[in-house]
Design a protein that fits this description.
- This protein is 25% helix and 25% strand.
- The strands form 3 sheets. Strands 3, 6, 7, 8, 9, 10, 11, 12, 13 and 14 form a 10-stranded mixed beta sheet that branches. Strands 1-2 form a two-stranded antiparallel sheet. It has a two-stranded antiparallel sheet with strand order 4-5.
- Strand 10, helix 3 and strand 11 form a beta-alpha-beta unit.
- The two termini are 25 Å apart.
- The relative contact order is 0.20.
């Protein structure tokens, strides 16, 4: 899952293709030792963009600084074909955000833990986060189509109240999560179910009068929280170890970057962390 939550965003990488589709023969490491080569989406804030304004850009800069190497970016939209045209084409060496333990690539240790959020207007003073609460029975609910919260909404027979937003889009011209949040502010919907990095970033960056809380998982329901790591080729064992070492030594600096972008975080036990 992340389905990478990234073409809406990490939401699309959560829709992973079978691992066999990306099976690679054993090979020596091809990771560069003279530059930090990053596979990234050119227009997918808050994660990355070509203007280097995303938090993944900042973390890449951080790591490259400690390695005394320049950052080289290879841009490709995070849609089907992303890994094939970037990492496995040996054009770059690391994907800065993917689900830890996913099947598409080998992953580092996770460097943050987040989940889906329930977002409401501050003025509405909605305290509940349980979609089974009667308070939500007549609310207009916005969500990104085919993401895990859809299952929760269906469980509570609320699909008739849903306004769907497209999952797979050209991120150079569309930002479904931001559109959803702006529609919430405008009163077109009453509740938004949004991947945490999108919700936290846009609420903070755009100064939106919205409140958010982690959407709780339900027994037998879909997973709603994910640990996010960096992805590398299976052959790049030494490079993965280097990245793990950087994550361990500089986790506080990484977390500071995430907090600066408003990314909501969970601890190891799944409890919300205060910025």
């Amino acid at each position: 899952m992340m389905m990478t939550i990234k073409a809406t965003a990490l939401a699309a990488l959560l829709v992973a293709l079978p691992a066999a589709s990306f099976a690679q023969p054993a090979a020596p490491s091809l990771a560069s030792t003279s530059e930090f080569r990053v596979c990234g989406d050119p227009a997918n804030l808050p994660f990355s963009n070509q203007a280097h304004e995303g938090f993944e850009n900042k973390i890449a800069d951080l790591f490259a600084g400690y390695l005394h190497e320049p950052v080289t970016n290879v841009w490709f939209p995070q849609i089907v074909g992303f890994y094939r045209n970037t990492l496995f084409a040996h054009r770059c060496d690391v994907v800065m955000g993917t689900v830890a333990g996913g099947e598409m690539v080998d992953t580092t240790n996770p460097y943050y833990h987040t989940g889906y959020m329930i977002v409401t207007r501050n003025a509405d003073h909605v305290a509940s986060v349980d979609l089974g609460d009667p308070v939500f029975s007549d609310k207009k609910i916005g969500l990104i189509a085919s993401t895990p919260p859809t299952d929760i909404v269906a469980r509570h027979h609320l699909l008739a109240h849903v306004t769907p937003y497209n999952l797979t889009v050209d991120t150079r011209v569309e930002a479904p999560a931001r559109t959803l949040l702006l529609d919430l502010v405008a009163g077109k919907i009453d509740v938004g179910l949004v991947w945490g990095p999108f919700a936290g970033y846009y609420i903070k960056h755009d100064h939106l009068p919205l409140a958010m809380a982690f959407l709780p998982a339900e027994p037998g329901g879909p997973r709603l929280d994910y640990r996010i790591a960096m992805g590398v080729r299976p052959s790049d064992v030494t490079f993965r170890r280097t990245l793990n070492d950087l994550i361990q030594k500089h986790q506080d600096e990484i977390t500071a970057i995430l907090n600066d972008y408003g990314i909501p975080l969970l601890d190891e036990q799944g409890n919300p962390l205060k910025p």
